[in-house]
Design brief:
The protein is mainly beta and about 325 residues long. The chain is about 5% helix and about 45% strand. Keywords: Hydrolase, Signal. It comes from Larkinella terrae.
């Protein structure tokens, strides 16, 4: 009996050691600021790979996409814009296969890159609209959705297949459903609810939020206590929607009702941000892009180097 008990204790000790060896510790986001090289880079989109500890950010200026180590700050070129016929780059998202989806902004294009940075597929959307502004995207394990800040429509394609299929003009809407201004930046940031039932889109020009049913395509305005004008990138965490409002240089939380039809805008947070565009959650922080897109032209030059800020989530 004693010999059997001793053997059991040895086995438990070995199993415990093995378990400890296989615990994956979260990768620490060590730096408060991550410098981005290039005097005309003007970063806009960001995507974070929590399993590897890298984030990706793309340039409005030349379409280059950089890969940055969150522990060391080391920066490398992931995909060159010129080599992939991508002169500009807006929103970015990573899918479960490690592929990077790229919004082509005013080029009216969408691309998806392989995990090694090579181009997997390119969609030219001129068949749907002669011009467009593909601004941001969101995905789950089935589909990826894209906003068009110029045209009243959302695009969609499948992410489930190894080789992505055709891009579809998934939703078109009217000014009565979602008013657009011209000129102006309209549909911008986009998120999916955790159950996949709804999309939430911010209209930068009006500061309004809209809930879109992914099954019926029904559109409903989310009633807010105050608009979130200049809303850019979005992040949804349970019932709190975080809105990056570029002109204000802050991020604003919006507490949403259970049906996502009402929202209360709270106090802004984030220090020393510079025309913050998009963001990605990394543990207790947001990695926030200081796009400085308001300084692309005019008398005020951008603050160099360009940067990504680590912002503590209240």
């Amino acid at each position: 009996m004693n010999r059997s008990f001793s053997l059991l204790l040895v086995l438990l000790a070995v199993c415990s050691a093995c378990f400890r060896d296989h615990i994956v510790q979260p990768i620490e986001v060590k730096q408060e600021t991550y410098p981005i090289p290039g005097d005309t880079f003007f970063p806009e989109g960001i995507a974070y790979d929590a399993s590897q500890g890298f984030f990706y950010t793309g340039s409005i200026g030349n379409g280059d996409i950089l890969k940055v180590n969150v522990q060391t700050g080391e920066t490398s070129l992931f995909a060159a814009g010129a080599a992939q016929n991508r002169p500009t780059c807006n929103g970015l998202k990573l899918d479960s296969k490690g592929r990077l989806w790229v919004c082509g902004g005013t080029q009216n294009k969408i691309q998806v890159l392989n995990p090694d940075g090579t181009l997997l597929k390119n969609w030219d959307l001129s068949a749907f609209a002669a011009t467009g502004f593909i601004n941001d995207c969101i995905l789950d394990d089935k589909y990826v959705y894209f906003t068009d800040s110029q045209n009243k429509q959302l695009y969609r394609t499948s992410v489930a297949l190894a080789q992505p299929g055709d891009m579809e003009q998934w939703l078109t809407f009217t000014d009565q459903q979602i008013p657009y201004t011209s000129p102006g930046v309209n549909a911008n940031g986009i998120v999916l609810t955790a159950d996949g039932n709804y999309l939430i889109v911010v209209i930068s020009s009006s500061g309004k939020l809209y809930r879109i049913d992914t099954s019926t395509k029904a559109i409903a305005e989310i009633q807010l206590n105050t608009p979130v004008n200049a809303g850019d990138g979005l992040w949804l965490e349970n019932q709190t929607l975080y809105v990056s409002r570029n002109v204000t240089n802050q991020i604003f939380p919006v507490t949403l009702s259970g049906d996502y039809l009402q929202g209360t805008v709270g106090a802004g947070f984030g220090d020393n941000l510079l025309f913050n565009t998009t963001m990605a959650k990394a543990g207790p922080y947001f990695l926030v892009v200081n796009g400085q897109l308001n300084r692309r032209s005019g008398p005020t030059p951008p603050v160099l180097p360009f940067s990504i800020s680590r912002v503590t989530i209240p």
